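To whoever picks this up:

The parser on our side crashed when reading a file containing two proteins. I've narrowed it down to the boundary between the first structure block and the second sequence. Both blocks are reproduced below exactly, byte for byte. First block:
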Amino acid sequence: MDHEAFSGVKVVELAQWVFVPVAGALLADWGADVVRIERIEGDPYRALATQGIGTDRGGVNLSVALANRGKRSIALDLRADAGRQVLHELLADADVLLTNLRPGALERLGLDADTVRERWPSLVYARGHGFGMRGPDADQPGYDASAFWARGGLAYVLTPPERDYPISQRGAMGDRNGAMALAFGIAAALLKRHRTGEGSVVDVSLLATAMWTLSSDLLAALNDGEVTRVPGRGPQPNPVVGSYRTSDGRHVQLVFLESDRYWAAFCRAIGRDDMVDDPRFVDLAARREHSAACVAELDAVFARRTLAQWKEVLGRLDAPWAPMQAVEELVDDPQVVANGYVGEVRLDDGTTYRLPAVPVQFDGEGPPLRRAPEHGEHTEAVLLELGYDWDRIIELKDAGAIG
C-alpha cells in the first residue's frame, strides 16, 4: 500500500521537547519531508535521562527516536542574520511551519503569525503551546505536567481525596495527545488550502487538550452537575461496572453498561446460576439498591480463581470486559501483535529497536517507522538543496551560524 499520504508536503519544524515534535513525527510517518531546525547546542530533550529510555539508556535514545522519527535535522543559530536567512529560504517553498516557540520569542525572530502569513499567505502556520495564544498566561512556558496535568484538572480528578499529594502523571501523556490533535489540525488546514489556495493558522494548547480529555467532567461542571474525584473502589451503583481482584492479586475490569443484557449469561459463566433470579439482583434497579451485597458476592467469586483462569472463563462470554494488564504484558498482547501496534526500526548497522506505532492505519496498515536524525545530521544536505555551495557552507560553519 501507499504510505505516503503527505508525500510532497514540506514541513519546517522549529520546536523542541515532545509535544510539537511528535506532531511532526506523525506527519513524517505518512510521507511529509519534515526538516527539523535545532539550536546549535541541540534540543535539550536529547539530554533528558528517564526510565532507561533517554540518555541513560546507553544506546539509542528512544525518547528522541519516538518524537523525531523520519525527519531531517539542521542545526541553525537563529540569533544570527545568516541563520535566519537560511530559515527564510526554507520557508519559501514550505507547506507548513510547525513551532512551539512562545509568542515573545516568535515576535523577536520576526516569525509571528501575522508577519509570516503576510510574506507567505499559502503557508499553514501551526503552533502548539501551553495555555493558548491569548490571555494573561499566553507567554508562560508550559509542559504537559503543568499545563495539561496540573492546571488542566487531570491531577485533581484522578487523585483519590484521601491522598495528601496528587498522583504523578505518566511521561508526556498530554504531549502525545496534543500532538495527535495538532497533526489533525494541520491535515485539515492542508485540505482547506487545496480547496481554496489559502493557508491557515492552526493552534492547539495543552490546556485545551486536557479539557477535551475531561469532556465528561466538563459537561457536569458546565451544567451544575457534580464533578467527582476518583475515589478508591467506593460504592458501585452498577456492580458489573468495576474491577474485581483475582486469587493471584490481579484484577479484571467488567464494563457491563447494559447490565440486564449480560446479567444472566454472566452469572451462569461464573457458576452462580442462583444469582440470576435472586430478588436482590434480578435487574439493574435491584442491583443498584443492593449494590454492596452484590459486590460482596462477586468479590468472593473472583477471589477463587487466578487471572489466567478468569481470562479463560470470561473469554467465552460475549460481553465487554478486560484483564488489567501491566505495560510489560501489553507489548506482547496478541491483539497488539496482530494489529501491528508496535513497530520496529532497523538501523544501517543491523541494530533494531521497537517503538509504539502511530495509532492511525490506512487500508489496514500503519506506516513503516524510520529512525530519528542525529543532531544537525542533514545541515549540509539541506543547504545544498537550497543552492548553497561548499565555500558558503564552510563560511557559515566558521561563523557559528550552522552546526
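<<boundary where parser fails>>
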Amino acid sequence: MIEEGRALFLQIAESVEDSIVDGTLPEEGQAPSTNELAAFYRINPATAAKGVNMLVDKGVIYKRRGIGMFVAPGARDLLLAERRTVFADRFVEPLLAEARKLGLGPDDLARIIADRAAAAPSDSTPTEGTEL
C-alpha cells in the first residue's frame, strides 16, 4: 500500500479518508489511533501522528481525550465535496478544453460518456448521486 516517492503521512491520511468515504469508518465511529496506524504500516509513530493531525486540522476526525480518535459528523460529505472539486480540476477542466478544440459541445460529451459507461464492465454499484 505504501507508495515510493509520496510522503508517508499523506498516504496515511488518504487511507483514513478512503475508509471514511467508502463507509468503512462511519461518522462518530472510532478511527485508528496513531499507534495502531504506525504498527500496521510499520512506520514511526511521529509520521502517523502527522497524518492524523492533518485530518484533525481539516475537521475530518477529532480527539476524545483518554478515549481515542473519532470520525467527525459531516466528514464524509466534506471529503466527497473536496474530492469532487479535485476531480473537476484534474479531469473535467482538461476534458472541456480538449472538447472545445475538437468542436464538441455538452451534448456531444454527454453522449460519448454515456456510450463509454454503457460499454464498460461494472465492478460496483454507483455511489449515491451518480447515474453512471
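After patching the parser it read the second block fine. The mean pLDDT is 91. Residues 87-119 form one domain.
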